[in-house]
Amino acid sequence: MVFHDKVPVPELFGWRVDEEDYVFIYMELIEGPTLDECWNRLGTMEKSAVSDQLSQIIETLRRLEQGPSDQFVVSKSSTTGSLIPIMVYFRIIGDIKFTHAELERRNIIVSSFAPVQIVIVNWQQAGWYPDYWEYCKAFYTCWDGEWRKDYVDKILQPRTDVYTVLSDYCMAMGTD
Fold first, then answer.
1. Half-sphere exposure for 95 (CA within 13 Å, toward CB)
2. What's the half-sphere exposure (Cβ side, CA atoms, 13 Å) at 176?
3. What pTM, to 2 d.p., does this model score?
4. Exposed/middle/buried for 108, CB within 10 Å: 0-12, 13-18, 19+?
5. Alpha carbon of 26 to those of 11, 13, 17, 100, 154: distances in Å?
6. What's the CATH code, domain 32-173?
7. How is the chain split into domains, by residue range?
8. pLDDT in tens, 32-89
9. What pLDDT, in 10s, does the model give residues 103-138?
């Protein structure tokens, strides 16, 4: 249940692709409610414990180093031409860091309450993104006042400068 001894994730047992090209992943079942389901029942101390655990997990993910063969922004089969300008652009606006990319309360399972222990699930969007991406995505997809106002900035490095631009762009494009 632990990745790199500090990132609690379900243990992966295997995977397969069926005849219709659907991918199935076999992994450990983590018992417990999602953080979204139990957030309002948690006390201030428990919420702080969750916040501290998430901060440590994110810090651990940020220390992972991208291998030289992982430098692609799109898949190998893409025909987008040179990726150099895209890579240079991303590096100008932020270092590339390993990111869960969907750090929302519904993707965090509370596996224990005494003391509070969490496990992060739904890693399908995880990958190497600009360092601001985790914050922008978490902030943009969360409208709950307390979580957004009091905890997201404690868990992730605030990047309100980039978030404001990204949010304005999304609204201008008609995406909420």
1. 7
2. 2
3. 0.79
4. buried
5. 9, 5, 11, 19, 33
6. 3.90.1200
7. 32-173
8. 999 999 999 999 999 999 999 999 999 999 998 887 766 655 555 555 555 555 556 5
9. 999 999 999 888 999 999 999 899 988 888 888 888
